[in-house]
Please model this.
Amino acid sequence: MPASVRSAAIQSIANKRPVEFPHAKINLPELFGANVFGLQAMRARLPDGAYKGLQSCMEHGQGLDPALADQVANAMKEWAVERGATHFTHWFQPMTGSTAEKHDSFANLEDGRLIMEFNGKVLVKGEPDASSFPSGGLRATFEARGYTAWDPTSPAFIRENTNGATLCIPTAFCSWTGEALDEKTPLLRSSEALNREALRLLRLLGDTKVGVVYPTLGCEQEYFLVDRDFYLFRPDLIATGRTLFGAKPPKGQELEDHYFGSIPPRVLAFMQEVEHELWKLGVPVKTRHNEVAPGQYELAPIFERTTVASDHNMLCMEVLKQVGLKHGFQCLLHEKPFAGINGSGKHNNWSMATDTGENLLEPGHSPHENMRFVVMLSAVVRAVDLHADLMRVTIAHAGNDHRLGANEAPPAIISIYLGEQLSEVVDAIVSGTQGKGRARELMRLGASALPPLPRDATDRNRTSPFAFTGNKFEFRAVGSAQAVAKPNAILNTIVADSLAYLSDKIAALIPTRGLEAAINDVVAETLAKHQRVIFNGNGYSAEWHAEAERRGLPNFRNAVDAIGQFCTPKSLALFERFGVLTGKEAESRMAIQAESYSKAIAIEGQSALSIARTTVLPAAQKHAHAVAVSVRAQKDLGLSTEQQEKRLRATSQHIEALIVGIDELQARFEHAEHHAGAPLDHARTYRDTVVPAISTLRESVDALEALVDDALWPLPKYREMLFIQ
Ligand code: ADP
Ligand code: MG
Model:
């Protein structure tokens, strides 16, 4: 009985209390990293020489030699077994958007006796069957073998669950022919490229101290929580992660009372356990708060080295989902679980740091530091202007299409927000000697200090997809559900390219102009050329769309339009030059991205069809029947039924439209299914035929939701899912 389903869910939720978890008084510093085989655990368990060897491998991103690997493996196993681990797994990120793991126990038989064993060979290399992971045609099933290789820059950790514990070893995943089959490998390669090019430029600028430059990342993760009792009756949420149907609730987010509001007790209990789990895993979670939409929340860690932060964000997403279940919640990471209210993003805070503890995007106090800052800034401006299309690809997927360009998230046009002060500096540099007063003063980078740049929250522009926020760039168009390895690999690569460009240019000018003038010239020229990508105004406005077009900035309105840009000759040359992806690897990634778009839409189409046909239609018919019977009875008694008949007619019409919508979606879905071609063409077909048919069908369903007897309506409603927690 549908009515009892919803009311039973509500009753069950009304009786729920915050879920406690066993925790002594929390000692955060002690708890932090307790389940990580990090530097501390290594130092405690490894002989001095081995520890130093491993540390050096971690710092320089080198592989381990076999003897050292054996020592590390043994220490790691002992540490893990003491913590109750019976199994280990190589933990990797195939191109599915999530992580993969295959568990093996440490068990081995020796003279009929079971011993716990783990050696360097197994630590360093695993051989999962690669045939069932997406490869975009890189590898046929008959040559399915792939291998995973430990990435010593990311420490091993233990995942605990109800009945045991598993040692997870973060790895990269490649085919036997050496092609990357995962998201991690290009991220590692791009970090190396960034390191190489940043060091070259720093040396040119006179730096002799910095030994390593690495990208840093802090991900602000937004998510929704829906009670499991509702979730389980929403087949669309289960299959697609978003509601395909649902009428607007009487109250949405218009009161703006949720953002930073007090956190509901059950949710807070959930967050506390999430944080507890993440701290144990060494994820430095820092911030928790309510987000703008009802039922929406955010979690943010302290930034870290990008390769680690990217792994940690995968862990955040996993832990949110798993701990959610324990607390009776379903955590929704989809970019747009509910129509009509805000969707979720993942602000991707990016910068570059040195092993000497400096942030290269920090405006400095001395003229020298400022010069370095402005050079780095112009590298980023050039990178984004030249490769806005590539940045757009990295955030292109079916879920994010509902968000980008809507009046809640950044537009699909990639631009940079610098804020007024910094833009003034850029203008001054560009106008060079023509600048007057302050501008003239600012222009001489090597000789004067930058004005202090206030890091004022009011100065921030929420509508910009890529904003400078004081000492880092915030890529805000990234979707909440997506793995961040890809956008960061691209950011690293395009900035590495610009750093290389600046080095070449400056080096060529030094003999004739001297260092300071060479830098001034090159920075001024670069900023002048690429300044068009800077925009400090309202990114939501129609004027900006027109203005961006005038400036020649690309605007890829949807994922499918964007995906093709991954393999332009310009992009391929960039990937090859910096050793981030071979042409073949890039092509395969583009195919996978297009295929996953098609798959997402196909699942949405099928899910919409089955719900409309077998859940909504019968409920609407039952309702219409009951009304018809009642009208007839009243008529028999000679009562007036004019208004009721009018209502009934409207309901009937919506039912008719619903059936037309179902048949149309079915036909288009079949057409798209059989219209396979190149992956991108296939995706285009889904976008142009199935996507609009799902929206049309939704109109009928949502109209009926507003008419049908509440007791008969089978799907938990927005007003329930968003507000009852
Ligand atoms: P908000 O943007 O919400 O005001 P913050 O600016 O404090 O919040 O930081 C947001 C995220 O940016 C956090 O995860 C923070 O650790 C991260 N962050 C801060 N500095 C850097 C940096 N240099 N590189 C990368 N991420 C950073
Ligand atoms: Mg932020």
Remarks:
- The longest helix spans residues 583-636.
- The pocket of magnesium ion (ligand 2) is lined by residues 220, 347, 474 (CB under 6 Å).
